[in-house]
Amino acid sequence: MFKKIILSICLLTSMFNGFSQVEPQAKTINHTINSKIFGKERKIDVYLPEQYVADSTGKMIVAYVFDGQFPPYFKMTTAINDYYTLSGTTTLPMIIVGIHTEERWTEFTPEIMKNDTLYEPTNQLMKHLEQEVFPLIEKNYRTEKFRFGIGHSLGGTFLLYSVFKENPLFHGIIAASPNMVMNGDDDLVKLGKNFLKKHPNNNSFVYVESGTEGLMEQSFTQSIQRFDSIVKTNNFPHFDWSFNKINQANHMTTFVPSLSNGLIAFNSKWNISEKERNNLKLADSSSLEKQLRNCFQNQENFTKIPMQLTVTNVMKVNKQFEEAGDYETAYKISKFAFHFCDKDNSVVDKLATKSKLKSYIEWQHFMALTMKAKKESELKNYQVAKQLYDQAFKLDVLNGTFMQRIECLDAYAMCNDKEGAFEQLRLLAEYFQLRGSASFVNNPNLVSLHKDKRWKKYIKIIDTNNPK
Q: pLDDT per residue over 184-201, tens digit each?
């Protein structure tokens, strides 16, 4: 007997209720470093998200937030990233480290000399990170090799400067309203241009946003736009640069939207690119393996994490298509994973894995067919829609399919296939709990079903099992 599937009254209500029932596991640890570089104590705060605490073996990338001595910056960063990760968005959970800074101007601002040396305090901060902060974090916490930086204003300036180095401190950054003008000239713009020309294969992720309000912010934005034009004109193929201008935002209101947008953009980069997704979408069965291998190699180059062609990694890609609603491509990738399973030495229990993959294949095939059918039905191509629904329902997938069975009724009724329509109504009445019958009774496309005695029978059951 199939289990009854209860339709959630409100997804968001359920989600937030679920959050309130879970004991918060995230925690913040404060460290004091007796810095030999600065000759005094320095402080950092380490935020461990719930997922890190719950998993005793998994590694995470680390995001270093500058101006950590200002609690709102640090708390907003942890809260926004937690919001995305815990609400089901695919943003990566991160260990977040707040770097306390005592003298922002001298520590963050590089004075670029003719010989391209650094102003000493900035050099001290870089050495402090490389020799004291990074080793502490990487020794005491489970970290990936990829380092992420987040900074606002001069913090963003420091991060941009740190990227334009032979061995950059960070592999990806979010810089909100950075100052690229420096000493009244586009010093950082020139440095970035020269660096990229010497290192065309640099594949850093750099996300920058700035505002339009206020003379200072306008000056910053204009210099960033000049660098943006240089990047686009020279077409550096691997440098992942993004710049967005936030209208009506001033210097202090850019941080939150920049952080939010930057985290989402970074997550997209961390997975597979739009171009790679399109290549997978267009690939046939003979070229799919090659495209997947290319994706994993590109991911490995960027994330610094080994990415082999395995069933596990293939299904991670599969999930991205499923979450995007592209079940047709997800179905194709699941079938590849099923056949590749026998070659994958990392799979311990091949029989159990293939059984699970078979379920994925059936579900994604069902969803691909019904989504096509829905589009045809909306175009009033009811006969084509009915044929697609027939194929989908022959897959014998029931759990979680109430919406597809509601949507198919138009096609069956308009094609005068009463047996097909009432079979779906029967399933809706007997195996699902719906919120009443109004959507059926008020649907003009179903009028032809009203005179059949089965109509009242199933409508009554649907009204009876309406959850209170």
A: 667 888 889 989 989 888
